[in-house]
Amino acid sequence: MPSLIDLRRRIRTVQNTEQITKAMKMVSAAKLRRAQQAVVNARPYATLLESMIGSVLAHGGEDTSIGSNPLLEQRECRSLRLLVLAGEKGLCGSFNSNVLKAGVQFADDRAGQVVEYELLGRKAVEFFSKRGQRTAGSWEQVFAHVEYGTAEVVATNAMRSFRNGEVDEVWILYNRFENVLRQDTTLEKLLPIVPPQASDRVLGGYEYEQPPEQLLGTLLPKRVVTRVHLAMLDSAAAEHAARMTAMDSATRNAGEVLEKLRLHLNRVRQASITTEIIEIVSGATALE
Amino acid sequence: MPAKTLQVEVAVPDGLVLDGPAVSVQLPLATGYLGVLPGHAPLLAELGTGVLTLTSEGNSEQHLAIDGGAAEILPDRVRVLADKAESAQDVDRERARQALERANSRLQLQSLEIDVERAQRALRRARARLAVAGHS
Q1: Which CATH code fits B6-88?
Q2: Which end of chain B has the least Cβ crowding within 10 Å, N or C?
Q3: Which residues of B touch A225 (CB under 8 A)?
Q4: Which string of b and e fits A59-73 if b means at least 16 CB within 10 Å?
């Protein structure tokens, strides 16, 4: 039976842990709110871009050269690049392990094809460098404050490699923020671009300041960048949500452990008091 | 019946900068400034660097320094997809002024080593920023 001092000590450590997890949960909740706001803010641009590309595709349709944008080119796939977006820190449930496992699976599914990784987030960098994988680049400290500039560099690198023929396809793997309790590991094809649905809204068609293919030449790369940017924002929000949930259950767990320990402590304390009383009483009767 | 006002949306990657009605908009296209009134023919165009001026009812004007992007113009709507858009209070005047001087001095060097186009772009950017800041 553990002594009273031991029990008190255990209770104190559990209490400390509970305080830490509670604080972490609160911090994550605040960060999550900000990250979610960033996702919402970024949406109009993405929607507008999508519809604008749709308009160009719809109204430049007769012009066959419009499909000749190098980013739309389908090739036989021999080598791929996978962008893996993971977290910077642990303590967030299966957030990191899910996406990393899926990243390994991605290469396993494509035996015979060369897969190189571009890694965002310290956890991804650590994991894949330990495995000795081919990496095209690694980025750390990019999720605390997601910058459009980072997405731009990553996407531009990917597009350059794609155009040079170094890679035939580019995919992105990240945790999509569904809601606070759910993050879905999502795999999307970035390049070659699957053109969005052509819209058909305007009667009589558009006038163009620039030839449609030139306009598409500026819009399509932006779409790739935007998708990387959105994925990064989503992943950041998902990480905070995952950490919040994990810390919430840790706090609850700590509460349960504390309750059990306190009960036990009181039993031990009462038992020792009872023994003491019995000793005194029996001592007194012996003297009579 | 043609619409009386234009619904103007200006979006940058980080968010929506502007969303509201206007009686006219002046856009800095890559090929030069374009004034848009309600009922304009549908048009798609690339944006250059310059000042977007939005005139709302009662002749109050709003200015944004724009740098690159694309615009879609419809009879009742203007949608601007800008890489960057700064309003007067976003502009760091001191930095813009320094950038202007730097670009000017670089252009005057006339050496072969400088990237003339880049310097000119920087010059245009700084001018647009200062113009926007000057309007406030």
Answers
A1: 2.60.15.10
A2: N
A3: 13
A4: bbeeeeebeebebee
Question: Do the beta carbons of residue A247 and residue A239 sit within 8 Å?
Answer: no
Reference A257, options A2, A20, A5, A13; nearest CA is: A13
State ipTM. 0.81
Contact B11 A215 (CB under 8 A): no
Q: Please report the residues numbered 77 through 116 in chain B whose beta carbons come closer than 8 angstroms to any beta carbon of chain A.
A: 79, 81
Q: What is the DSSP string of B55-67?
A: E-TTS-EEEEEEE
Q: How many domains does chain A have?
A: 1
CA–CA gap between residue A45 and residue A53 (Å, rounded): 12
**Partner B contacted by A202 (CB < 8 A):** yes
Q: Does the residue A66 lie in any domain?
A: yes
Would you kindly state where each structural domain of chain B is located, as residue ranges? 6-88, 91-133
DSSP, residue by residue, B56-105: -TTS-EEEEEEEEEEEEEETTEEEEEES-EEEGGG--HHHHHHHHHHHHH
Per the structure block, which two tokens stand in for B12? Answer: 């940058």
A214-273 pLDDT tens trace: 888 888 899 999 999 999 999 999 999 999 999 999 999 999 999 999 999 999 999 999
Is the CB of residue A169 less than 8 Å from the CB of residue A203?
no
Return the half-sphere exposure (C-beta side, CA atoms, 13 A cut-off) of residue A146: 32
What are the chain A neighbours of B29 within 8 Å (beta carbons)? 209
Burial class of residue A203 (count of CB atoms within 10 Å of its CB; 0-12, 13-18, 19+): exposed
Is residue A114, in this structure, part of any structural domain at all? yes
pTM (2 d.p.): 0.85
CATH number at residue A123: 3.40.1380.10
Tell me the CATH architecture of domain B91-133.
Answer: Up-down Bundle (1.20)
Is B11 in contact with A48 (Cβ distance < 8 A)?
Answer: yes
- Domain range for A63: 26-195+212-245
Return mean pLDDT, chain A.
88
Distance from CA of A255 to the nearest CA of B (A): 41
A18 in any annotated domain = no
